[in-house]
Design a protein that fits this description.
Elements (H helix, E strand, L loop, with lengths): L18 H13 L14 H13 L3 E5 L2 H11 L7 E5 L5 H8 L3 E5 L9 H11 L3 E5 L8 H10 L3 E5 L7 E2 L2 E2 L6 E5 L12 E5 L2 H13 L12 H7 L12 H10 L3 H20 L13 E2 L4 E5 L8 H10 L5 E2 L25 H7 L2 E5 L6 H18 L2
Parallel strand pairs: 2-3, 2-4, 4-5, 5-8
Antiparallel strand pairs: 1-9, 6-7, 6-10, 8-9, 11-13, 12-13
Length: 400
Amino acid sequence: MTDISNFMKPFTQQEPIPAAAIERAVEIMQSGRLHRYNLAEGDSNEASQLEREYAEWQGVDYCVACTSGGYAIQLALRACGVMPGDKILANAYTLAPVPGAIHNVGGVAVLVDIDSDYHIDMADLEAKAVASGARFLLLSHMRGHIADMDRLADICERLDICMIEDCAHTMGASWRNQRSGNFGKAAAFSTQTYKHMNSGEGGFLTTNDPVVAARAVVSSGSYMLYGRHGAIPAEEVFAEVKLLSPNYSGRMDHLRAALLRAQLPAIEDSISRWNVLYDTLAARLRAMKGVVIPSRRQEEFYVGSSIQFQANGLKRDQIPLLMEACAARGVELKWFGDDEPKAFTSRYDSWKYIDDIPHLPGTLAVLEKTLDMRVPLTFDVQDCHLIADIIEQEVRQLLP
């Protein structure tokens, strides 16, 4: 077989922050007024303007800018009424901040199996909801895979379950033209470096529920300066909750808000570019012997900032060999089926702080051979073909 060139670009390199954001950030740093409530007469409130702009783009009434996506999840759980000891349903295929948020608020995680397409298993969800009596679902749209939201909404309505959406990987995605994050009572988004907008760390809580919004604003750390937020309910709603909502200090500062305000107008273009790269890789992977990539449903509009595939033609003990071979040629793959957590990836049974970790055969079977790869916008279509060529060659070397 003809040798293929190695890939030379880093998988962790993001696009530069826009020049306008850098200029505005320098102005903010020169002023010394980084805290979102520290404003002089005539100052622009970057955080408040970002909240208004993001709420309008997302198509919701209220938005709270937060220090991280993980904090936004915790805040959403608390604002929706989760109390210590409450059981919270959650799909087992997710990243560690999701069960971490449940643990942080004193909830009890009830892990739910997934199906072969990385979606929450509806039958297992319904069975565990009935058996546990859980009244909350923290749904992670893990790696941008959106479940059948019509069916999911029906289950939640019939069983009186409050849905909170973790949309760290689905900013801009939708189901039947309804944006991800607009199905549940509240949603959390991330603007961590590897997400769809980049402020290093950061996030949003969004909701159409005025009480949830008021609780979230006060608990984010507004003190009694909640009126300086940009997308909030009326004063009478705050009057009901402001003395009953603890301050957890997780608000966003002006510096990060300025970085994000400059990126938001370009997000639709970024999504289009991501999907060109994703579709190129998906078509190549789908055609490979020994590799399976789940099909996307027609109702789903995804954002392809990462891609997952299953090396089903290989044995489990060959997966590390494939990763090593690809890494030696510059292609960075992650494995969600590893027995030991590595970097950002971990399997649900490694979260030992969860009591009574269940055996989830569907999740284990899917993750056993699931490989994950970032698709940064610093790549182009030609890069995607070279990456696919390398994966294909290395998979063939290991096939029987």
